[in-house]
Amino acid sequence: MKKFKTIFLLALVASIAISSCKKDNNDNPTQADSPSSIEADITKDISIDGEVVFVGGIHVKNGAVLTVKPGTRMVFDSDALSYLLIEQGSKIMAEGTAADPIIMTGALEEPGSWGGLHICGKAPINSGGTGLSEIGDAAYGGSSISDNSGIIKYVRVEFSGTNLDADHQGNGISFYGVGNGTTVEYIQVYQGFDDGIEFFGGSVNIKYVMVNEAEDDSFDWVEGWNGKGQFLIAEQGDIGDRGFEGDNLKADNAASPKSSPILANVTLIGAGDADNYGMKLRRGTAGIFKNIIIAGGFDKRSIDIENSETLRNLVAGTLEIDYAYINNQVSDMTIHYTTDEGDAVDITGYEIENSENVFLQNLTSNVNTGTTFNGGFDMSTEDSFFTATNYIGAGDDWTLNWTR
Question: Residue 340: which domain range?
Answer without folding.
Answer: 37-399
